Amino acid sequence: MNLAVMGLQWGDEGKGKAIDYLARDFDVVVRYGGGHNAGHTIYHEGKKVVLHLLPSGIFSSGTISVIGNGVVVNPIELVKEINGAQAHGASLGEENLELSLLAPLILPEHECLDIVFENSRYIKIGTTRRGIGPAYEDLVGRRAVFVRDLLDKDTFYRKVKPLNEYYNKLMMANGGGAVAVESYIDEYTKAGAFLKKFAKNTIYSLNRYYREGRSILFEGAQGVLLDINFGTYPFVTSSNPTIGGLCTGTGLPPGAVGKLIGISKAYTTRVGEGPFPSELSGSEGEFLRVKGSEYGATTGRPRRVGWLDLVALKYAIMINGVDEIFFTKMDVLDEFTEIKVVTAYEYAGKKTDEFDPSIEFLDQVKPVWTSFPGWKTAISEIKEYKDLPANARHYIEFIENFISAPLRYISSGVLREQTIKR
Ligand code: IMP
User: Fold this and answer.
1) Residue of the nearest CA to atom 10 in ligand 1?
2) Distance (Å) of CA 275 to CA 233, 236, 272, 279, 306
3) Does the predicted TM-score (pTM) go above 0.85?
């Protein structure tokens, strides 16, 4: 059965580990959105590998990895990542890696614009500065340049030259400097020559795999609360990590998604700016950050940390129609005496269980907490659900009753084996 795996929080839920655990059984793994702002950490033969653009199935032999048309691609980074993955033992050729001809490109100007916009904006978003927002803006603005355009130097130059003039005006108006096309055209077309063998019309190949009954895993990037439409706007990314983005980013119909597994940490983290009602500050927050190694996989920034917000989680589940939850980093809570979750908000003097993603709401709400006694036991070596401490099982069962979705997988460490399937 086909499967979609999607982050239900603000990204960094442990999708890399979940996908790597689940991907062994899939014929095809496809990324449908985001770009190299994503950082999916997997462990291959005991070594840590962080993937940004490549689908997390690349180490499973026989799996076809597809970068769909919804992904914004920085070709230089992609070439680097392919070479890095090969050095780690992945064998990538045209038969098992496909790159959509229709994926929009990230150009050097997009990265500069991301920084210039961020420095001149009246609200700082705290972007990854990878050019993601400006590249998606160009797609919507109907001036994007695609992987297809990169495969021929003359076409590429003809398309980017007028764009470059437009970008330079924008950059200079916002306090930045100009970029010359000539400074990157050779490097980009060299990357294009390298990527040519992987470039395909993935809309057709994916639909063919679907028709042939091959199993497909949809690998989400970021998370529901970072969605441009449903997330905590404006502190969001510029794509749809949610279910709609899965269709527009692959060309597969909604019926192609058999089951949807949502990923949630046992607590919450967020990178960058924006509201975070259950945020923990002080020594408790610092303890959680250190214990959970909560530092960005892409930027190295310390992540903000807090308790699990069940109102937000229920909202994420509602929008996507999640069937099961892969619950990650449960072991990070091992040493806490008390563990809390948000079960409602207080807003304008009233209690509500509805999540409104606007800052006007989230900046005003007070969390209503439910507390649990901690389990104070190391759980990483436990293999069976029944062997988990009673307080840990109580925590899990309370959550699944509250959100009306089963916590099917409990992850208690970075390794594939450290996963309890219920
Ligand atoms: P952008 O995607 O670089 O434009 O950044 C917009 C917001 O999304 C920032 O708050 C980033 O920290 C956040 N963000 C983007 N990608 C990820 C991710 O993969 N994990 C966590 N946060 C992310």
Assistant:
1) 272
2) 10, 11, 10, 9, 12
3) yes
